[in-house]
Amino acid sequence: MIFLVPDFPWEIIVVALPLAGALVCFLWPRHASLLALIAALGVAGAVSGLGWEITTHGPQRYAIGGWGAPLGIDLYSDGLSLSMLAISALVGLGVSIYACGYFDSQKARHFWPLWLFLWAALNALFVAADIFNLYVTLELLGLAAVALVALAGGAEALGAAMRYLLVSLLGSLIYLFGVALLYHGSGSVDIMILAQRVESGPAAWTAMGLMSAGLLLKTALFPLHFWLPPAHASAPAPVSALLSALVVKGSFYIFLRLWLEIFMDLGASPGQLVGILGAAAVLWGGIQALRQTRLKMLIAYSTISQLGYLFMAFAITGITAWTGMLYLLLSHALAKAAMFMAAGNILHFGGHDRIAELDRVAQRLPLTLAAFSLAGISIIGLPPSGGFIAKWLLLEAALDSEQWWWVVVLMLGGLLAAGYIFKVIGHAFTQADLSHEARAVPANMEWAALTLACAAILLGFLVPAVTLLIDIGSPFDARYAG
Amino acid sequence: MNWNSALPLLIVGSSLLPGIVIFFLAEERVVARTALNMTGALVKMVLVGFMLWGVYYGEQFEIRIPMLPDLDLVLRAGPLAMLLVTLSSVLWLVTTIYAIGYLENSPHRSRFFGFFSLCVTATVGLSLAGNLLTFLLFYELLTLATYPLIVHRGTEVARLAGRNYLAYTLAGGALLLLSTVWLYSLSGTLEFTTRGFLSGLDDTHHPALILIFIMMIAGLGVKAALIPLHGWLPQAMVAPAPVSALLHAVAVVKAGAFGIVRVVHDVYGIEFASSLGVTLPLAIVASATIIYGSLRALFQVDLKRLLAFSTVSQVSYIALGVALAEPVATIGGLVHLVHQGVQKITLFFCAGNLAETLGIHKISEMRGVGRRMPWTMAAFSIGAFGMIGAPPLTGFVSKWYLGSGALEAGLDWVVLVLAASSLLNAAYFLPILHAAWFKSPPDSWPQEHKFGRRETAWALLAPTLITATLTLILGLFATAPISPLEWVRFIASRGFTP
User: Do B136 and A377 touch (CB under 8 A)?
Assistant: First the structure.
C-alpha cells in the first residue's frame, strides 16, 4: 500500500486535514456537522497512521518542502507528541459527536469551522519542532479558543472571553520576547539546535523566565489561574470540554518540551518553585471547587487543581514522576471532557446547574450521572482508573526520593477531590419532590460523555501500552535516565 | 488461558456481568432482573464449589493482569481466600432472595441490584486478591459500590449517613493507598506471601515499617469498625435491611477484618509483626472495641442500632484472634469471620422481617412478638444465643479457641475480655428474648401487613430460616470434615508450620 511507506507525511495530514475540514464546513454550513464528523474520523485515522509510523520506525522528523532547519520548517514527532495527538483525537472525536446534538443550526455554523481550526492549531503545536512555530500555533490556538468561548453569547460569556483574549495575547507576547532573546543569543529557533547551543547565563535565564511566565499564564498555574474558571464555566459545554481537556494542555506541552530539552540544562532551573506553585494549585483549586455552588464552576476549579499535579512532577522529577504526570494529563483530558459534557447534559435537561438542586435533574439522567461519577473516580484517583495510576506513580516517585511534603499534598488533593465530586453525586440520590420542566437530552450527548468517562477508567489497564508509547524517542530519558 | 487461570476471573465476573446488565434494565422488568440475579448467584456458588475442591487438593488457581510497571493485578485462590469467598457467595445468594422480597414494589430496584452485585464482586475480588495492589483496588470498589446502597432511601438522613460513610472510608482508603505505595517503595514487592515478605528488610527501616503498619491498620480499621473509627457504622443503619445484613455479615466490615488478617499474616508475617511489637497494641485496641461496642449496645433503643454496635464488638474478635499471634487464637479469629457472618445476617434478616411485617423498629415494641412471628423469633433467638456464645452454637466455638489461644500466649486478661463481652451480650440480648417470648403482645402493632396465613412473606422468611439453620449446623458439627472450623485449621496448618 502506497500510504504506508515510511516517509508518508502523516505529520502534515494531521494538521492539514482539520484545516481543510474547517474550510469545507465554513463553505457548506448546512452540512457542517456531517462534514466535520468525517474530518474528525479522518484526523483520528491520520493520527493512527502517524502512530503506526512512529512505533515501527521511531521518532520522525519531517522537513516541509525539503528545506530543513535552520532555513525551512521542520516537524518532529516522538512518543510524547504522539500521545498528545492521540488524546486530542479521542477527545476531539467525542466532542464532535457530542456537539452534533448540542448546538442549534445558527451556532453550529460558527462552531464547526472554529473547532476544526482549533484542532489544526493544536495538532500543529504538538508536531512543531521550533520555538517560533510553537509561538504561531499557540497564538492561533488561543484565538480560536477565545472565539469559541464567545460563542455562548450573553454578557457573562463575552466578559469572560474578553478577559481570556487579553490573557492569551499577553501570555503569547511574553513568550515571544523569550523566543527573540534565545534567537538573538544562539541564532536558531530549532529546539534541537538550541538544546546544543544555549549556554547558561543571564540572557538564557531571562529568556527562560519570560517563556515560562507566558506559558504558565496560559496554562493557568496558580496564582495565574484567575482567568480560567469564568472562561471555562461560561463557554458552551463542548467548548468547556475542549478548553479544559485540550487547550490548556497545549501551552503545558510547550513548557514541558522546552523544560526537557533546554531549560533543565541551564542550571538554576526553578523546578522546585514550579512544583510548589503546582502544590498550591492542587490545594487552592480543590478548596475553591468545594466552595462552588454551580456545577460548571466546580468543574473549572477542579481543572486548576488537576493542572497543579502536572507541575508537581517538575519538582519530584525522575522517569516515574514523568510517567505519572503524563498519565494524569491523559486521564484528566478524558475525564474532564466527560465531566463538562455531563454538566452540559444536566444544564440542557434542567436548565440550571445549581448543585443544591441537582436532585431534581440528576435522577432522571442515569447515563449522564454514570459518566460524571466514572470521570469523578478518575479525577479523585481511585482505582482502577487512569487517575489512580497517575497518582500511584507520583506517590511512588515522591516516596522513592523521600520528598514527604509532596506526598502530603497528593493525599490532601485526593481527599479534596473526593469532597467536591461527592458533593455533586450526593445530590443525585435524594428523592426529588418537585417535577421539573425538562428538555430531553439527545442520546449521542449522553453516550459521548459516558464513553469518554469509561475510557478514563480503562486507561488504568493500559500502562504497558502507554509506557511503550511514550518511550519512543525517549523524550523523558534524555537527561534523567533511570 | 486455561481453566485454572480463568476460574478466579469467572468467579469475579459471575456477579460483575449481571450487575452491569441490571443497571440497564428498565425498572419494571422484574423477571429478567430476578433471573439475572439468581443465575449469577447460583453460577458463582457452583464455581466456588469447584474452586474449594481444587484448593483442598492443592490445585493452583491464579491469574495475572499487568497493571503498573512491574506490578500486576493478581487473583489467586488460597485457603484463606476461599474462606471469605465461600462465605460471601453463599450469603449473597441468600441475601439476594431476601432483597427481592424486601424491595418488592419499591423504586430504583435496578440501581439497587446493580450496586448490590458490584458490592459482592468487590468482596470476592478482595478475598481473591494476591497482592496489596489488587486488594486496594477492590477495597476502594467496595467503598464506591456500597455508597449508593446506603443512600438508597434518598432521604436527607440517608444522604448525611452516606456522606459520613464516605468521609470515613475514603480517608481510610487514602491511608491504605499511601502505606501500600510506601511499602512498595521500600520492599519492591506487594505479593501476599505466607509468613510475610518484609522480615528481610534492613533494621533501619523498622521505624518506617511500624508507622506503615499503624497506617494500614487505621485504613482497614475504618471498615472493620475498630474504635475510634467506627462512627460511620451505626449511622449507616438507615440503609435497607438486606444492605445492612450484607454490610455487617460479609461485605464492608469483613473486608476490613480480612485485610487486617492479610496484613498481619501475609504482608508482615506473624513472627515479624510480633518482633516489631505491633501485635499487642492491636490486641488491646481490638479488646477495647469489643467491650466498648457491647457497652454501647446495652443502651440502644433502636433494634438495628443495637445490632450495629454488636457488630462493632463482634468483628473485633477477628482482629483480636490475629493480634494474639498464637495459632489457636488465630483459628478462633478466622473461624469467627464465618460464624459472625451467619449469625449477624440472621439477626438482621429478623430485624428486617419485624420492620416490614409489623413496623417494629424499637426494642420496646418487641413485647410478645414471639407469638405473632414464632419462626422469625426462633431464628432471632438462635442468632442471639450464638452471639452470646452459648454452647454448642457457633459463637461458643470461636470464643473457645480465642480463649485457649490467649491462655497459651500468656495473655490471661483476654479471657476476662471475652467473658465480659459474653456477659454484656447476654445483658442486651436476653431481655429482648424474654420480652418477645414471655410478655403478652400489645393490642396492635405499629404498622402491620398481612401475609395470609404465613407470619410474613416467604422470600423474607426462607432466607432467615436458612441462615439460622446454618448457625445451628456450623456450631453443632464444628468438627465435621467440611466445616469452616476444619477449613481454618487447614489454613493454620499451612501458615504456622515452617
Answer: no
